[in-house]
Amino acid sequence: MHRAHTAFSLALSPMAHKNFATWLLKSSSSQQLAKVTAAAAVRTYNSAAAEPFANGSTASYVEEMYNAWLRDPTSVHTSWDAYFRSNSYVSPPNLAPVQANTLPLTAFNFGGAVAGAAPDSKTIDDHLAVQAIIRSYQIRGHNIAHLDPLEINTPELPGNSSTKSIYANFSFGEQDMDRQFKLPSTTFIGGDEASLPLKEILNRLENVYCNKIGVEFMFINSLEQCNWIRKRFETPGVLNFSPEEKRLILARLTRATGFEAFLAKKYSSEKRFGLEGCEIMIPALKEIIDVSTELGVESVIMGMPHRGRLNTLANVCRKPLNQIFTQFAGLEAADDGSGDVKYHLGTYIERLNRVTNKNIRLAVVANPSHLEAVDPVVQGKTRAEQFYRGDQEGKKVMSILIHGDAAFCGQGVVYETMHLSDLPDYTTHGTIHVVANNQIGFTTDPRFSRSSPYCTDVARVVNAPIFHVNADDPEAVMHVCKVAAEWRATFHKDCVIDLVGYRRNGHNEIDEPMFTQPLMYQKIRKHKNCLDLYADKLIAEGTVTGEEVKSVAAKYENICEEAFALAKTETHVKYKDWLDSPWSGFFEGKDPLKVAPTGVKEETLIHIGNRFSSPPPNAAEFVIHKGLLRVLAARKAMVDEKVADWALGEAMAFGSLLKEGIHVRLSGQDVERGTFSHRHHVLHHQLVDKATYNSLQHMYPDQAPYSVSNSSLSEYAVLGFEHGYSMTNPNALVLWEAQFGDFSNTAQSIIDQFISSGQSKWVRQSGLVMLLPHGMEGMGPEHSSCRVERFLQMSSDDPDYFPPESDEFGVRQLHDINWIVANCTTPANYYHILRRQIALPFRKPLILCTPKSLLRHPEAKSPFSEMSEGSEFQRIIPDNGPAGQNPSSVKKVVFCSGRVYYDLTKTRKEKQLEGEIAIVRVEQVSPFPFDLVKEQANLYKNAELVWAQEEHKNQGSWTYVQPRFLTALNHSRDVSYVGRACGASTATGSKAQHIRELNALLNDAIST
Ligand SMILES: Cc1ncc(C[n+]2csc(CCOP(=O)(O)OP(=O)(O)O)c2C)c(N)n1
Ligand SMILES: [Mg+2]
């Protein structure tokens, strides 16, 4: 921390100049030094490596590489060879290396030189050196800025390399300090002045880049954006605050600090994950929101972890304090659900922003303990809100994500979420990330929790500027927040605020931090809190008096006391008070057990089918791939025959919902074509780039929007995103499809923490559909199973409880369960179950095993009559063949689910056992159709009952269905298992073994 200053003061003292100059001369010619610096930078801190053309020193290195390559392409590393071959290398004028004669002299207009006369080479060198120093500050100033209030942790830069690299081109002496230098267009430190004395240039740069703010931005590819940032930080006077502004900061800081102190006083033994040491986060968030509201934002969606969450709810969202305090009282809940701990709950508030006098909506999305898991959920929710408001540029709705330092760099989902930030169908047009960087994660120091210098380096991949700021300097923090909000409003891209503070207590208030961080905590114990430091400063400069400071604090304490008294009168907590996504009007006036019909008029099916099988209207100009013309022709033939295959059935569901005004969004890897090349929702012009046609967007003139988008190769973030999207509006069908169901487990925390348990914890519903290609088709262990057993294991219906039978049995079960797990065998049933998602008077996630080979199976087709009016979803499909027609002669009933049905029927046919063996398909596995299973079993009174599955015995549905069968049969009959033995892996990698296993199971099942 002191290094820059030592170096700088040395540089400014007469002796030091000698030293500096000698040091420079000794170390090398500037070229040599540049190489050393570049190499050191590559090893120790990759910012220079990541921006090889962004600074003078590395630029000269690149140029040397280039010259070497010109002489002999094999003399450089292959990566350089490839690069130079690509013709990408141009030496940008503003990034030119600092060497005499590398730019034409005419390119410069030197202050002080006689007009028209060519300047001497020393003048040129000196000006270039000044330019290089300015660039150095812009690039590396943050490395030596005073960011850490405790002054113990700095980005790990061995030796003085950072200081040296800033002064790499410093060859001036005391006599040069008063020399006037013309300022290049890439700096704004001069304000209205075109040139400044060297001393002033250095002073100003030091102040801008090495003080309490460290701006990391020079890796950004856009010159416009770099200049925009330079201007915001370099312009003289940007850090001047009016007395009113200062008083507002003080008042906000007082509340933030007072809130934690109040909780500490009243609930000393309760965990609250206080913000002490980073209280400035509250005024910071308020500043971001104020500026953003001023710039047009009307709705802010926030995601955040435990730290400071209650404070955020209280002081940023202004959630009634009594509701917060009630959470500490250990009261019973007044409504259904299992609830969650207080520092996970969400909230939604609409209120007037007192600073801007504009109405604003604030939502904090409920989240699990799983750090950062909420990030993509917030993004999806934000995107959806932007979509429904027609806010295509994100001017009205924005997201703020708050992170802990350890989690931000440790959790991969942060990276996955960042990579959604600029994708057309996933962008939220800029997220402001705020890191509450207390320089510790639980008990782990940064040096053991990350390999990067900063916890924020992940943001560099998306060219997001990073504003590091010392959390003990409220005015610096407010400036950074203002710039961040303006950045977002201007460029609609992500940015990061790294609030470098500390954690005054242990990880929670009951933890002892001295066990593991003794030295850090000795410092912390002696360190005054930010409020006191700031109050002292404002008192000293005469902005406020000591009495004012005390009275603001006392006033807030009174407010807390009153709310505390009110909270004591409460007898119950209400989970509904903590809902983050209220669906106003959705439940109103609805019969909670009435499902709208899912069949539609046949003419609607024909219309959708015709559209879906037609080329674009401008077919003459739109060149379609020949193979797709065949696909369209085959679809048309099916429509003429009034039958649908899988893709057509799906299109019927989507098209009919779109017609009814239901927005449909399908997202996942390669979903536009479909992993198995069956869907083809987006037709590509074979000759024109980006010319596409999507017939589902053109079904009806007044239809709802249809969106289908190939996602990034992520499951965790994209599934989280779609879950968030589904939370916003119940009148939308949101589907996420896995490439293969097997890959969905990389999103396991979204599945476990949000989808399966979200309603129970946070009284929030979601109708998200997960499409999981599943089936044992000899494709090996990772292309066979979506692990349906895991979803079933998380289903919340009781295996031992047979609900009362009634007409509403099915819907009541759906109402009571946490989600639906199904494996449909016909396009019609697939169509109905998708439509049922919207027809239900509530929302439940749907986990759907979807087929692969069945997509083209000649028998896996449905007549339109199974989708038209009067038809509905079949939880169980009974045997409709000879066995079903003559049940008394049936010896065995094979219950099964999914594609194995087709193998079983084929074998049964081959063995000519169609009259003796009935095959019953359980299409909706969970909630378990107790009533229909009982009915089927009763139909075949004398038959043996078996469950056949292709998955291994410890996988698939068996462990879920077995106890439920027994309940359905009232333990009066047994059901035995037919299928593969238990297995550690989901499937064999050997085709031969696969076939052997399949044949064995078919033979076992189809035998009497
Ligand atoms: C995914 C995940 N892994 C582990 C934990 C356990 N855990 C809770 S807090 C914490 C430390 C978090 O450190 P940081 O992100 O810096 O936040 P801080 O508590 O310092 O504010 C850990 C490891 C968790 N909650 N989530
Ligand atoms: Mg931390």
Please give the structural blueprint:
Layout: H1 3-12, H2 14-27, H3 30-44, H4 47-50, H5 56-71, H6 78-85, H7 121-140, H8 161-166, E1 180-182, E2 195-197, H9 198-209, E3 213-216, H10 223-234, H11 243-266, H12 281-294, E4 299-303, H13 309-315, H14 321-326, E5 332-333, E6 347-353, E7 358-364, H15 374-388, E8 397-404, H16 405-410, H17 412-418, E9 431-437, H18 446-449, E10 466-470, H19 474-491, E11 495-500, H20 518-526, H21 530-540, H22 546-568, E12 572-573, H23 602-612, H24 626-641, E13 643-644, H25 646-659, E14 663-668, E15 683-684, E16 692-693, E17 706-710, H26 716-728, E18 732-737, H27 748-755, H28 758-762, E19 769-773, H29 788-793, H30 809-816, E20 820-823, H31 827-839, E21 846-850, E22 862-863, E23 876-877, H32 882-885, E24 892-896, H33 900-910, E25 917-922, E26 924-926, H34 930-939, E27 944-952, H35 958-968, E28 975-980, H36 991-1005
Parallel strand pairs: 4-7, 4-8, 5-12, 8-9, 9-11, 10-11, 14-17, 14-18, 18-19, 19-21, 20-21, 24-25, 24-27, 27-28
Antiparallel strand pairs: 1-2, 3-10, 6-7, 13-22, 15-16, 20-26, 23-25
Helix pairs in contact: 1-2, 3-5, 7-9, 11-13, 11-21, 11-22, 12-19, 15-26, 23-24, 23-25, 25-31, 26-27, 34-35
The structure holds thiamine diphosphate and magnesium ion.
Features:
seven-stranded mixed beta sheet, Rossmann fold, eight-stranded mixed beta sheet, binds magnesium ion, alpha/beta, binds thiamine diphosphate, disordered N terminus, 1008 residues
Structure description:
- The chain has 1008 residues and is an alpha/beta fold.
- Among the domains are: 243-574, Rossmann fold (3-Layer(aba) Sandwich); 602-774 and 823-866, Rossmann fold (3-Layer(aba) Sandwich), CATH 3.40.50.12470; 876-1006, Rossmann fold (3-Layer(aba) Sandwich), CATH 3.40.50.11610.
- Helices cover 40% and strands 13% of the residues.
- Helix 1 (3-12) packs across helix 2 and helix 25 runs parallel beside helix 31 (827-839).
- The chain starts with a helix and ends with a helix.
- The protein binds thiamine diphosphate and magnesium ion (MG).
- The site of magnesium ion has 6 residues, from helix 16.
